[in-house]
């Protein structure tokens, strides 16, 4: 007798809500755990082509930690679209100005590229303070972050 491989359908997806406090957490370790939960790889029903992950709320994004000399040496690039329009910012400046964007970029790099990855990224909610407007969803804490 052969067993069949389970393949989750879009209609069968059950999405929950998770919350993470980024205070004092290392950026990369936080991002991998968040990306895993957004993708749904921590569930037994994981299917690569279906968005079966949970919504993730990250609070205290401004207190995320970077190891070594990354604050001074890590550079984020973007292009305006005009000739000679390459802009760069150090991680230190990004954390001061847009701490949410630092976490968003780290998580985006760990998600699949294409429409499915962009759809998964919309389930990530990041806030620089301790307050968030998603308390009605009763998010459960996300474990496994060192």
What distinguishing features does this structure have?
146 residues, four-stranded parallel beta sheet, two-stranded antiparallel sheet, 28% helix, globular, alpha/beta, 6 strands
- Radius of gyration, taken over Cα atoms and rounded to an integer in Å: 17 Å
Regions with little confidence, pLDDT below 50 for 5+ residues = none
Q: What is the element string, with H for helices and E for strands?
A: EHEHEEHHHEE
Secondary structure category: alpha/beta
Task: Give me the number of helical elements.
Answer: 5
Morphology: globular
Mean model confidence by pLDDT: 95
* Percent in strands: 15-25%
Q: What composes the largest sheet?
A: 4 strands, parallel
Distance between the termini: 43 Å
Spatial sequence of strands, sheet with the most strands:
5-2-1-6
Helix content: 25-40%
Task: List how many beta strands DSSP finds.
Answer: 6
Task: Explain the overall architecture.
The mean pLDDT is 95. Helix content is 28%, strand content 17%. It has helices at 27-39, 70-73, 91-97, 99-108, 115-121, and strands at 17-21, 55-59, 75-79, 86-90, 124-126, 140-141. α1 links the parallel β1 and β2 (55-59). The strands form 2 sheets. A 4-stranded parallel beta sheet has the order 5-2-1-6, covered by helices on one side. The chain has a two-stranded antiparallel sheet with strand order 3-4. The longest helix is centred in the N-terminal third of the chain and has 13 residues, at 27-39. It has 146 residues and is α/β, with parallel strands linked by helices.
